[in-house]
C-alpha cells in the first residue's frame, strides 16, 4: 500500500491535522521497517526444513532421472529409474502409499523387445506418465552419452554393440499389468518430451538430439513426423545448435499441440492438416527471462522448461527455467502474461538466477487442479559457485518445495527439503499423491531413488 501526503501550505488544514500528517510522514518508514522485520520474523518462525523419506527400490544402477514419475487414479505412484549401464536398461516401478510396497514392473529394454539386440539400451524415460482409458502412456530415451564441456551427444556404440534403436511409445495397462509397444521413433533418436491428447487418442513426442516432432494416432496406428523443429537441435554444430524443448502440451479443446524454440517462438501443431509453425504475434522473449547465446549449449534459452494445462482459464502455465518466472499463455487470445517469480524465497531475495543452468522440471498441478507444486533450487550461504560451461549446476544448492495457488495468486515457499540431514540433488521430477504428499526422484548421498515429502498442508 502506498500513502502520499502533500506538505504544501494549505490554510484549510488546522494545526492539529497538519501535525498528525507530518508525524505520519516521519513514522511511516519506521512502520514499514517494523513490518519488514515482522515478515522476516515470520519466515524465521516457519519450519527450518521439510523432512523427506528416501525409499530403496533395490536398483544399484540408478542415475539422474528427469520427469518419469506420476500419480495414477489407482492411488499408486509410478516411476522409472534411469540407468547409464550398457547391460541394464531403465527400470519401471510402482509404489503403493496404502501398503508401502514397491513393486518392480519391468525393464525398459525388455519391454521394447530389444533385450537380445545387444544394442545401446533404453536407459530411461524422460517423460511423465499420462493416464487414459485405464492405461499409462509414456516413452523411452537413451542414457548413454558423450559429454564434452556443456554438450551431450549420442555416444558411438562400443565394439560388439549396435547403435541405439530409437525411443518407443509405450502403454501400461493398470489392470492387467501388461506393457504394450506402440511405435518406435525414426532416425535412431530418443524421445525426450511427450504429451497426449487423451480425448482424441493421440501421442506427441519430440526426439533427441535433433528435435523431430512425432504424432502417433492410437486408432490408426499411424506415426507421423515433421522435420527438425529448430535448426538441427542438439545434434547441430556451431550456428546450427539449438536446445530441444523439454515440454509439450496439448490444448484439449481443439487438440493442438504446443512447444517452444530456443529463441522463444511458440510453435503450434495441428494434426488435421499436419502443419507446424510459430504462433504469430506472441513469443517468450521477455527481458525478465535473461539474455542468451542461442547457439551455445548448456542452457535452454527462451524455452519454457515445464508446463501444465489449467482448464478453468483455458491456459498453459509454464515456468522459464533459468529465471524461475511463472507465466501463462492463452492460446485463443495469443497472449503471454508473466505472473510471478516462483523460485525459492532465498533466490527471490537475492535476485540471483537459480543454480541449475536448465531450470527445473518438477512443476505440476496438484490433486485439486488449482495449486501448482514446484521443486526448485535455493542458494546456500557461503557455497562456492562452479565454473561456467559445464553440465549441471553452478554450485551446491538446497531443494525447496514451493506452491502457487492460481485462483488467489498465493505463493508459499515451504522451505528446504532434507533426507536425514542430507540434501537431495538432481531433482527434476515431481508427482503429488491424493493426500498431498510430494514424490520425486532424487540423488541422496550417491544413490538415486524415490523420495516422499509429507504434504506441506498437514
Describe this structure in words.
The protein is mainly beta and 458 residues long. Helix content is 9%, strand content 38%. It contains 3 helices and 32 strands. The chain has a 5-stranded mixed beta sheet. Strands 3, 4, 5, 6 and 7 form a 5-stranded antiparallel beta sheet that branches. The two termini are 32 Å apart. Mean pLDDT is 89; it is low at 1-47.
- For the CA atoms, what is the radius of gyration? 24 Å
- Order of neighbouring strands in the sheet with most strands: 1-29-28-27-26
Low-confidence stretches: 1-47
Mean pLDDT: 89
Strand content: 35-45%
Number of strands: 32
- Helix fraction bin: under 10%
Structural class comes to mainly beta
The total of helices stands at 3
The biggest sheet, with number of strands, parallel, antiparallel or mixed sense and barrel status, is:
5 strands, mixed
Please give the alpha-carbon distance between the first and last residues.
32 Å
Rough outline? globular
Key terms:
single chain; 458 residues; mainly beta; 5-stranded mixed sheet; 5-stranded antiparallel sheet; 3 helices; globular
Topology at a glance:
Elements: H1 15-45, E1 50-51, E2 53-54, E3 62-63, E4 69-71, E5 77-83, E6 91-95, E7 102-107, H2 108-111, E8 130-132, E9 135-139, E10 145-148, E11 151-154, E12 168-173, E13 179-184, E14 190-197, E15 202-208, E16 212-217, E17 222-228, E18 249-250, E19 257-260, E20 265-270, E21 275-283, E22 304-310, E23 315-320, E24 325-330, E25 335-341, H3 345-350, E26 363-365, E27 371-379, E28 397-405, E29 410-418, E30 431-432, E31 438-444, E32 447-453
Parallel strand pairs: 1-29
Antiparallel strand pairs: 2-32, 3-5, 4-5, 5-6, 6-7, 8-9, 9-12, 10-11, 12-13, 14-15, 15-16, 16-17, 18-19, 19-20, 20-21, 22-23, 23-24, 24-25, 26-27, 27-28, 28-29, 30-31, 31-32
Amino acid at each position: 500500500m502506498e500513502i502520499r501526503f502533500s506538505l504544501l501550505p494549505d490554510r484549510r488544514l488546522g494545526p492539529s491535522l497538519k501535525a498528525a500528517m507530518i508525524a505520519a510522514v516521519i513514522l511511516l518508514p519506521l512502520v514499514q521497517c517494523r513490518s519488514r522485520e515482522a515478515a522476516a520474523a515470520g519466515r524465521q518462525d516457519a519450519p527450518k526444513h521439510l523432512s523427506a523419506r528416501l525409499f530403496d527400490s533395490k536398483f544399484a544402477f540408478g542415475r539422474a532421472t528427469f520427469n518419469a514419475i506420476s500419480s495414477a487414479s489407482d492411488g499408486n505412484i509410478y516411476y522409472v529409474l534411469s540407468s547409464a549401464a550398457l547391460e541394464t536398461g531403465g527400470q519401471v516401478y510402482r509404489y503403493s502409499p496404502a501398503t508401502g510396497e514397491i513393486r518392480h514392473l519391468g525393464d525398459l529394454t525388455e519391454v521394447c523387445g530389444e533385450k537380445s539386440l545387444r544394442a545401446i539400451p533404453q536407459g530411461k524415460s524422460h517423460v511423465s506418465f499420462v493416464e487414459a482409458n485405464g492405461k499409462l502412456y509414456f516413452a523411452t530415451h537413451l542414457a548413454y552419452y558423450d559429454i564434452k564441456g556443456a554438450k551431450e551427444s549420442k555416444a558411438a556404440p562400443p565394439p560388439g554393440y549396435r547403435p541405439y534403436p530409437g525411443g518407443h511409445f509405450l502403454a501400461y495397462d493398470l489392470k492387467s499389468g501388461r506393457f504394450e509397444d506402440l511405435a518406435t521413433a525414426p532416425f535412431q533418436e530418443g524421445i525426450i518430451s511427450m504429451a497426449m491428447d487423451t480425448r482424441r487418442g493421440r501421442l506427441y513426442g519430440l526426439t533427441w538430439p535433433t528435435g523431430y516432432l512425432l504424432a502417433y494416432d492410437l486408432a490408426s496406428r499411424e506415426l507421423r513426423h515433421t522435420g527438425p523443429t529448430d535448426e538441427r537441435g542438439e545434434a547441430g554444430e556451431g550456428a546450427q545448435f539449438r536446445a530441444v524443448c523439454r515440454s509439450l502440451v496439448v490444448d484439449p479443446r481443439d487438440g493442438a499441440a504446443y512447444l517452444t524454440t530456443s529463441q522463444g517462438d511458440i510453435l503450434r501443431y495441428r494434426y488435421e492438416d499436419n502443419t507446424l509453425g510459430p504462433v504469430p504475434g506472441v513469443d517468450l522473449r521477455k527481458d525478465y527471462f535473461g539474455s542468451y547465446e542461442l547457439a551455445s549449449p548448456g542452457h535452454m534459452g527462451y524455452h519454457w522448461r515445464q508446463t501444465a494445462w489449467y482448464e478453468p482459464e483455458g491456459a498453459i502455465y509454464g515456468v522459464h527455467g533459468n529465471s524461475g518466472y511463472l507465466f501463462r499463455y492463452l492460446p485463443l487470445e495469443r497472449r503471454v502474461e508473466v505472473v510471478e517469480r516462483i523460485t525459492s524465497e532465498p533466490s527471490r531475495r537475492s535476485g540471483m538466477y537459480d543454480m541449475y543452468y536448465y531450470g527445473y522440471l518438477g512443476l505440476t498441478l496438484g490433486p485439486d487442479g488449482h495449486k501448482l507444486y514446484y521443486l526448485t533450487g535455493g542458494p546456500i550461504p557461503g557455497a562456492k559457485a562452479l565454473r561456467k560451461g559445464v553440465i549441471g549446476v553452478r554450485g551446491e544448492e538446497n531443494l525447496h518445495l514451493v506452491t502457487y495457488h492460481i485462483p488467489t495468486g498465493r505463493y508459499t515457499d515451504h522451505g528446504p527439503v532434507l533426507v536425514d540431514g542430507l540434501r537431495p540433488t538432481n531433482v527434476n521430477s515431481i508427482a503429488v499423491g491424493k493426500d498431498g504428499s510430494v514424490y520425486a526422484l532424487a540423488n541422496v548421498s550417491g544413490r538415486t531413488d524415490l523420495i516422499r515429502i509429507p504434504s506441506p498442508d498437514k
